[in-house]
Each structure stands twice: as C-alpha cells, then as structure tokens.
Amino acid sequence: MDTTVVARVTVTAGDPESSDRAAQNLLKELHELPEVVAVEQATTPSDVPGARGTDMLAVGTLLMTLAATPEILSGVLAYLGEWIRRPGNRRGEIEVDFGNDRRITLTNPSEAERKRLIDALIREVRQR
Description:
This protein is α+β, with helices and mostly antiparallel strands. The protein has helices at residues 16-32, 70-85, 111-127; strands spanning 4-12, 36-45, 55-67, 93-97, 103-106. It contains three helices and five strands, in the order βαββαββα.
C-alpha cells in the first residue's frame, strides 16, 4: 500500500471572506478527485483565554490527504494549477505545504512554471 501525505492547501483571494469562499469551492471539487483520499477544512487552535479544546476554522485553508506517489502528486498539483488559472480565481494564489519546508505557491502560473515547480517537488518526494 502506498503511503499518504497530508498537504495544507491555503487559498488567498484578496480578503478573508473571498479566500474562504474560494477554499470552499475548491473543497467541493477536491472531494470529486479520485486521487484525493480525504480533504477537509483545516482548524487552528483557539487563542481565546479559557477556551479548552475549541478549535477555530482556518479561513481559506484545507487539509488534503493523498497517496505519496509522483504520479498522484503531479496530477493533483496540475489540477490546482489549472484551478487557479480559471477566470475568477486568477487574482488569488494557492500555497500547498507538504511540511519539512516542502512548499509550492501557485499564482496563475504559466504551463512551464507550473511544470518546473511540480517536477522539483516530485524529485524531492522520490528522494525520501
């Protein structure tokens, strides 16, 4: 069985409300991808004094679990690159953080730039 990787996907689209709306739209689409094992809205610990065990939703941030194979990572990252290039999403960006300083930021990338970023991440995954 393949191992999985959890990526923190953050969508920034101007203001918090727009970012959250864009992330919710992306969440629905990622649920439809067979390569994605799970995806959910991320939470962040509450910094309210006295609030125990209460986490807040992290605006514009999703946690995505997928198999850690180069083919699946490449396919999902290509999908995210296409998503950010769609009309209405172009003014935003997506940051995909795999932990251990493995992070990709997609800001309406060209096809060549997207391929370069994905190839660099895939090389790193293969070295693990």
